[in-house]
Design a protein that fits this description.
single chain; two-stranded antiparallel ribbon; two-stranded antiparallel sheet; 16 helices; 60% helix
Length: 394
């Protein structure tokens, strides 16, 4: 009778090429991750990495609108292609605004690039996805009553960042009309929230972009609309907090009925917390504490879960992306912004390490990006915005 261990040894010997290949892959991946993470740690140390990622994004995003839309995965459909293109532009605009503050010598270049991004978002091609859902163009119907809150707020947020870093007054009139329309529509809503699309629940992260945009506008215009921001935040604290997690809710019914229960998602909660850092730092700090308690998974692969119970070992979510080991790709990316803002250095480094393991950085011709960005360009723009979100008051 052949001993069991001899059988195992024989099997390993006959498959040694397979094992050698696996070991070689692991060693190469470890070395690659070490190389990709060596610059993580400080604004100065990360400068080349950040600017090289900015260079790559300029080449990929600052293009003709149709070309940008074609960069979005075709399987998403027209609506999500439009949304992802919009997010790519708005998050890249925020990244450029952050970069111009971190490295002042880049300010004029950032102003010029954000200008180009605003023109892309204003194009009929980028507006089409919203027009299809609402049955009217979001800019042509600015005096109307339909929501259009997601498109309008992202465009207003971009213009606010353009103006805050020294851009000219060429978009002031548009900025005025966007914020006036959002403010009016928010106040006309009994629950102070508006749907992204007709017939769907209210998505709180989409509403928060509008509140961020109004906050920026108030800073530029002697506090105009700040009262609306304050009222919204007060109601959020009193009415829209999930009793189990202490986190701001992910969804609300169209009528704002808070007795209707809805799931709390990691991708939405991390994004909510990030947006709150731009509005109310103390509230954001409270939410960050609850966020880590409910969603942080701190192990060999650190990140934020999509579901509080850690379910979804392997799966797919249109907002979170491919869920692996229960982790939310977009939730983990937005978590980088929260950790950066609150100077949670160890967690920030761990999250960026996870991004490197999953994303796999490549560098060519002074341009750097994650390989995954070839599939999800928006993820690269989000991660760059998040890792440059330092608290300017620190």
């Amino acid at each position: 009778m052949i001993p069991f261990m001899d059988i195992i040894k024989d099997w390993i010997y006959r498959h040694k090429l397979f094992f050698i290949s696996i070991i070689a892959f692991v060693l190469i991946k470890v070395a690659w991750v070490v190389w990709g993470c060596w610059s993580i740690g400080s604004q100065l140390k990360e400068k080349n990495d950040i600017l090289q990622r900015k260079n790559w994004l300029v080449d990929k995003i600052v293009v003709e609108p149709r070309q940008l839309l074609n960069e979005m995965p075709g399987g998403l459909g027209l609506q999500f292609q439009g949304e992802w293109a919009l997010y790519s532009c708005s998050m890249f605009s925020k990244a450029l605004s952050n970069i111009s503050i971190l490295y002042p010598e880049t300010k004029q270049e950032s102003i010029n690039t954000i200008d180009s991004l605003i023109q892309i978002v204003r194009s009929p091609e980028l507006r089409l996805y919203d027009k299809m859902r609402w049955g009217e163009d979001p800019l042509d119907s600015i005096a109307g009553d339909k929501s259009h809150i997601s498109y309008l707020s992202h465009l207003a947020w971009m213009i606010g960042n353009y103006r805050k870093i020294g851009g000219g007054d060429n978009y002031n009139a548009l900025h005025d009309s966007l914020c006036k329309a959002m403010n009016r529509r928010i106040l006309e809503s009994e629950c102070m929230n508006l749907p992204t699309y007709p017939g769907e629940d209210i998505y709180i992260p989409d509403m928060l972009v509008a509140i961020v945009a109004l906050t920026d506008y108030a800073q530029l215009n002697n506090g105009k609309y700040q009262n609306t921001v304050n009222r919204w935040i007060q109601r959020a604290k009193l009415e829209w907090i999930d009793s189990e997690t202490g986190l701001l809710r992910s969804f609300l019914p169209l009528d704002g009925n808070t007795s209707v229960l809805s799931p709390i998602k990691g991708s939405y909660s991390t994004l909510n917390t990030y947006y709150l850092t731009q509005i109310d730092s103390e509230f954001a700090k409270e939410q960050y504490s609850h966020l880590k308690e409910a969603f942080l998974k701190d192990s060999w692969l650190t990140g934020f879960k999509e579901y509080p119970d850690g379910s979804g070992f392997l799966g797919m979510d249109v907002d979170a992306g491919p869920i692996i080991f229960g982790l939310s790709p977009s939730g983990t990316a937005f978590g980088i912004g929260c950790a950066t803002y609150f100077n949670d250095t160890d967690l920030r480094n761990d999250l960026l390490k996870t991004a490197e393991i999953a994303g796999h950085t490549v560098l060519w011709n002074d341009k750097r990006h994650y390989l995954l960005a070839n599939i999800a360009l928006v993820g690269e723009a989000i991660t760059l915005a998040m890792r440059t979100t330092y608290n300017k008051n620190d």
